[in-house]
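so the lab meeting is tmrw and i was supposed to have these ready like two days ago... anyway. pasting both below. for each one the top line is the aa sequence and the line under it is the structure tokens. i havent really looked at them closely yet so no promises
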Amino acid sequence: MNSLGKQGKPFAFLIDFLAEKPLIFELTDSVQEIWWQIPGFSNLPENKSNKVLKSWTTFPVSFGIYKTGFEKIMQHIYGGDTYLLNFTQPTPIETNLSLEEIFHISSAAYKIFLKDKFVCFSPETFVKIENGKIYSFPMKGTIDADIENAEQIILTDSKEIAEHNTIVDLIRNDLSLVAENVVVEKFRYLSHIQTNNKNLWQVSSKISGDLGANYAEKIGDIIFKMLPAGSISGAPKKKTLEIIRKTENYERGYYTGIFGYFDGINLDSCVLIRYIENQDGKLVYKSGGGLTFMSNAEKEYDEMLKKVYVPIA
């Protein structure tokens, strides 16, 4: 990444959650293995799919299984080992559509399809680099938009406020590893998402910092210093990752990793959430949410289930 950045050569990249299997795709290559659509750039072939979503059945882990993991994490929180942890679980699904067809019909700021492996339709930016400035937009807080006064509820909920404060502080620290003059430009704003079964409000913030003049030749260092993304790991990051590995009991893989595209000068990237994976011909949706000392098991379980959706325009 550093070498390509120094040469000003465009490339795309995928980095898994544990940064064990990163992939780089130079645009001089024939990149049939991966398709992506992000704001301002796409390498999509012509959309040949005219299918619609007709069936959607989910098989989530039971509340009992979820609660077992939840309680282990809460013990670590009360013990001071972590104060924010993103707890995720897999949900097998059955649908009439293939991964490729889901990719074509979904609507999201960031869409990625790794052939025969996974599809992702992410609403969450990881970092952007534009004209020597780096930006991050951490997303924490989700609510059913059809609930009466949903906007007010999510913005005044004490648990959601504490969780969002924590993640903003974490991302500020992460950006400070690679940039100067880090500031929160916009705090806790709402964005709307239409899905196949619900309307959702999600809460984000905007944070920025200044990079050095030769940032392009260090583009790989910049990205890897901030991994994994704070919004899908937690704080403090190192200890929280240890707890995640002990309590989730499954492999995240590329889920909650990142995808990015560098055009030779600027960079855009996303967190790989809202993600469906092919596991030996079976489709598995991976989702979760942030836990703090104020978390309630039933509410967190419900939020995890709400995130098992396909966003359709």
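ok protien two:
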Amino acid sequence: MSSTQITDKNGLAQVLAILKAERAKALSLREWKHRLAGYGFAIKHTDGGDVVTALPHGREICALPAGL
């Protein structure tokens, strides 16, 4: 699986803003993951921590911040 890091700070900030906003709206972790899928994102659990990935191919975007 290839790793794709967003190098554009503005693009990464927008992705993190979506993650944070949807987490605030969701009542559970499962609902949050379902809402993220609607935006084309998923959370993948790895040995190094959780990673935000792009659907449908699972390309890694960035590490999931600890606060989420």
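from a quick look at the 2nd one: Strands lie at 41-46, 49-54, 59-63. The chain has a mean pLDDT of 88. will dig more after coffe
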